[in-house]
Amino acid sequence: MSRTPLPGIGTRYDLTTREQRRLSVVAHRDGGRTLSAYRSDDPDACALSLRLSAGEAAALVDALLPTHQSPNLLHTTDLGLLAERIEIAATSHWNGRVLGDTRLRTETGTSVVAVLRRADAIPSPRRTSGSRAATPSS
């Protein structure tokens, strides 16, 4: 992410996603935010621009970041580490794949600390194990 001061306005933050999509947020001096998404076929053409009040921006941050109120959130630490239970749907890209083949940590920065299947748990699953990443009932 890059940061650009905008004198008299605030600060602009630019992000390019893993899929090479461009997003920007202008943090206005009054606390409001402008969120912009750019077209994939023309990264200089804005496809969506939303002006958010300070309260709306705070609500969006709450939706994007897990909070202690999330039913799936298991634990957070002062180091910023988070443990969360995530169910894998039958239609998920991750369903049924060998954990070592998913490149999950490389692609997402996520570490799997356990795989739960019905009443069974596989703690600290090995990346090269023959066990599958998940099943629909996980």
Fold and architecture overview:
With 138 residues, the chain is an alpha+beta fold. It folds into two domains: 2-64, no CATH class; 66-138, Alpha-Beta Plaits, CATH 3.30.70. Helix content is 14%, strand content 34%. It contains three helices and nine strands, in the order βββββαββααββ. The protein has helices spanning 54-64, 99-102, 104-108; strands at residues 2-6, 10-16, 22-28, 33-38, 46-52, 73-76, 82-84, 114-117, 120-123. The strands form three sheets. Strands 1-2-3-4-5 form a five-stranded antiparallel β-sheet. Strands 6-7 form a two-stranded antiparallel sheet. The longest helix is centred in the middle third of the chain and has 11 residues, at 54-64. It is elongated. The two termini are 34 Å apart. The mean pLDDT is 78. This is Potassium transporter TrkA. Residues 2-66 form the Potassium/proton antiporter subunit KhtT-like N-terminal domain. It comes from Streptomyces alboflavus. Pfam families: KhtT_N (PF25991).
